[in-house]
Structures are given as C-alpha cells and as structure tokens.
Amino acid sequence: MSINHFLNKIKSYLGIDNFHLVFFLVIVGVSLSSFALGRISISKTDNNNQIEENNFYLKNENEKGIEGEDFSTNNKEEKKYVASKNGKLYYSLNCSGANRIKEENKIFFASKEEAEKSGYGFATSCN
Q1: Within 10 A of 125 (CB to CB), how many other CB atoms are there?
Q2: I want to staple 83 with a disulfide (CB 3.0 to 4.6 A). Which of 3, 25, 51, 90 is the partner?
Q3: Reported confidence tier of residue 26, pLDDT bands at 50, 70, 90
Q4: Count of Cβ atoms closer than 10 Å to residue 91 Cβ
Q5: β-bridge partners, 90
Q6: Which residue in 68, 82, 86 sits closest to 115, CA to CA?
C-alpha cells in the first residue's frame, strides 16, 4: 500500500474531494493566523500603555503657591474638578470632557467655588 492509496481510501470514507479539502485548510489557516496576529497586537499594546500618576498641583494665576509642589498626601481629596489653563470651563474628574484636556494644561480645583472664583464656568455637558 502506498501513501497515496491510503489517503484516497480515507477521503473515500469521509466523502471529501480535493476542492473541499483545500477550502477547509484555507479557512483553518486564515482563522489561526488571524487569532495569532490578534494576540500579538494585544501584547505589544499592553506594554506601551502603562499609566503614570501625576501628583503635581499646577498653580493658578490667582493663587499663591509653588508651581509643581507635590501634594501627594492630600491629592485624592483636593482633585475634584479640572479645567484647562487655556479654556473657560471646568469639569468634574469623571466627565468625558476632562479627558480631552492635555496633562500639561490641566488645573485642579478642590471645589466648584474655587473654580468659579478663578473665572471658570461649569461645563453643562457634565451634569
């Protein structure tokens, strides 16, 4: 018995011709390669997206303080609102509008009153 005879015998039991066999192998190959490429792209993305927390408070024009002073001990209590130093509105930290502000332009406020004293208005999109 030759290998070709053995393969033809298996194909006859399964009822598969060459076209269907090639089609099946192409589908399996594309599926496996798509899965592998997806896994590779996720592992490279995860390594680049490490989050760094910035514990610096930026000085507002009306405030007296040291620019870049570290407030890491009271950081969680003080940061409730954020505004852009180039804008006119302030946002709560969980608002999607706050995510569009560049880190270097962010100014943090502990209360609404503090933000409004500095001349900022509340963003109506963050109710």
Answers
A1: 10
A2: 90
A3: very high
A4: 24
A5: 83, 122
A6: 82
Per-residue 3-state assignment (H helix, E strand, C coil) for 98-124:
HHHCCHHHEEEECCHHHHHHCCCEECH
Pairing of strands 81-84, 106-109: antiparallel
Residues 68-112: tens digit of each pLDDT: 444 444 444 567 889 988 888 888 888 888 888 888 999 988 888
Residue 114 predicted with pLDDT over 70: yes
Question: If we measure between CA atoms, which residue out of 49, 56, 53, 50 comes closest to residue 106?
Answer: 56
Q: What's the number of CA atoms in the CB half-sphere (13 Å) around residue 46?
A: 6
Confidence of residue 63 (pLDDT cuts 50, 70, 90): low
Are the C-beta atoms of 91 and 126 separated by less than 8 Å? yes
Phi-psi region for residue 3, left (φ > 0), alpha (ψ -120 to 50) or beta?
alpha
How far is CA 40 from each of CA 1, 34, 35, 46, 48, rounded to the nearest angstrom?
A: 44, 10, 9, 10, 13
Bridge-based pairing of strands 121-122 and 89-92 is parallel
